[in-house]
Amino acid sequence: MAASLRQPALTVEWGLAAQRVQRESGADIFIWRHCSMRLAATVLSAIVLSACVSGAAWSDPSEKAVLAAMDADYAQTVDLSQKLWDWAEVGYQEEKSSGLLQQTLANEGFTVTPGVAGLPTAFTAEYGEGGPIIAILAEFDALPGINQSAAPTREEIDGKHAGHACGHNLFGAGSVSAAIAVAHWLEESGTPGRVRVYGTPAEEGGSGKVYMVRGGLFEDVDIALHWHAGDENSAAARTTLANRSAKFRFTGISAHAAGAPERGRSALDGVEAMNNMVNMMHEHIPQDARIHYVITNGGNAPNVVPDFAEVFYYARAPQTAGVEEIWTRMEDAARGAAMGTGTTVEWEVIHGNNPLLVNETLALMMDKKLRQIGGVSYTPEEQAFAESIYAGFNNPTKALSSATEVQPFETSLGYGSTDVGDVSYAVPTVGLNTATWVPGTSAHTWQAVAASGSSIGHKGAHVAAKTLTLAAIELFTNEDLRDEARAEFDAARGEDYEYTSLLGDRDPPLDYRK
């Protein structure tokens, strides 16, 4: 099962579409073997050829042609996402993943600038001239400590220490595919404007985009587009939680735990005392706030009093001020823990993200484009894969069939966090989610890794790429929409707004995953 879902599920369906057009138009489909795929896509532009989207009609022939060309290039999206999934490189170590995306864009005529904002794996890639600048964000980092094959049952891969449990392999591939499609449209339509890809590393706890915002890389951008893997298709105006993380490092005095315990001062005691106090804080923080941690170093042997211990904390709240208030109490808990255990403590802020500033004007536009494209439908093999994963969920809140649907538009609070939040305070920003995972799947799970490496994930990325492409075309050609979005953005930030980063003025933590 796993092997079959890792293959592009396009060959058979493309062939069926070819036969259909041949019957209906009399076209000699077999010329495809002797002409470019883009020409073939033009021949087939009257019929939606996507392997994942329910049919819809477009009144704009240029949009129809663009979408058909994207179907022709679907194999490239699959190839990019699968390579990134195989490599599963963690934050600021994504050398192969970033290099592949850069080379793909360079091959399409983009001007690529690597290593921007002091981040070796970050890049920008631009195509076009004059006009408005539409940015498309691309992520590509994996999560450490989660390992799974593309099978619908728990199955680890020997020797692999990370996995795409948040689907950033799909994010990167889908965004690059969209940017290439937009570049072709700009060229073929003669529309003035520039599409600019931002290759953004280390979203998972490294705040790569924050350093890009801090470096002024978005100052000339008109609109920024993004998307994310998920278990539903939605362009809802959903904000996120602000967050900050830090590693709290306690230092004590080592001793023989049995022979001379009175001489020791346990750094692990300091960590545990802090954890106890912060856990008691949970009862006395706002309902929408979150605190979580892992002990990253607790000593090496029970009979040695550890002289060093470390705990890695996250704090989240709907507003930046809420994070700051909780953080002050956490720092006090750390000091108190050190004092009470005879140890010392210091901490290093690792990352910090502002909440997402939603733009309802742009979100409504994105919702419309997503509804034009539609959701993700499964082949019989994919249905069996999905059913196997779905059967393991405890009281799932979504029906398995909802992958084909687009969720109702709404404005709401999401409980995740992202460095896209900082981008959204620099430039009007809009995104979407697509059903790259089996409905009911939580991010950061083995089920998300499995689907992200399967044809279900690839189809979801294709839906996202097409939606982003239609959104970009609308933004390039609709000045009134850009102006309305900007007016909403300026009003939401306020006249006296000044950007503040939750990670302060620290340099990028390029070794935080080492």
Broad structural category:
alpha/beta
CATH class of the largest domain: Alpha Beta
Name the poorly predicted regions.
6-55
Question: What is the CATH superfamily of the largest domain?
Answer: Zn peptidases
Sketch the major β-sheet: 6 strands, mixed
Strand content: 15-25%
Q: Roughly what is the average pLDDT, rounded to an integer? A: 90
Q: Could you please say which CATH topology of the largest domain applies here?
A: Aminopeptidase
Biggest sheet, spatial arrangement of strands: 1-2-6-3-7-15
Index terms:
16 helices, Aminopeptidase, single chain, Alpha-Beta Plaits, four-stranded antiparallel beta sheet, alpha/beta, 514 residues
Produce the secondary structure layout.
Blueprint: H1 2-5, H2 11-25, H3 37-43, H4 61-72, H5 74-87, H6 95-107, E1 111-114, E2 123-129, E3 133-139, E4 143-144, E5 162-163, H7 168-189, E6 193-200, H8 208-214, E7 223-225, E8 228-230, E9 237-239, E10 242-251, H9 267-281, E11 290-297, E12 308-317, H10 320-341, E13 344-353, H11 360-373, H12 380-390, E14 411-413, H13 420-424, E15 429-430, E16 433-435, H14 446-452, H15 455-477, H16 479-493
Helix pairs in contact: 3-4, 4-7, 4-15, 5-6, 5-7, 5-15, 7-15, 9-10, 11-15
Describe the structure.
By secondary structure, the chain is of the alpha/beta class. It folds into 2 domains: 2-240 and 356-493, Zn peptidases (Aminopeptidase); 242-347, Alpha-Beta Plaits, CATH 3.30.70.360. The protein has helices at residues 2-5, 11-25, 37-43, 61-72, 74-87, 95-107, 168-189, 208-214, 267-281, 320-341, 360-373, 380-390, 420-424, 446-452, 455-477, 479-493; strands at 111-114, 123-129, 133-139, 143-144, 162-163, 193-200, 223-225, 228-230, 237-239, 242-251, 290-297, 308-317, 344-353, 411-413, 429-430, 433-435. The strands form 5 sheets. The chain has a 6-stranded mixed beta sheet with strand order 1-2-6-3-7-15, with helices on both faces. A 4-stranded antiparallel beta sheet has the order 11-12-10-13. It has a two-stranded antiparallel sheet with strand order 4-5. It is globular, with a radius of gyration of 24 Å.
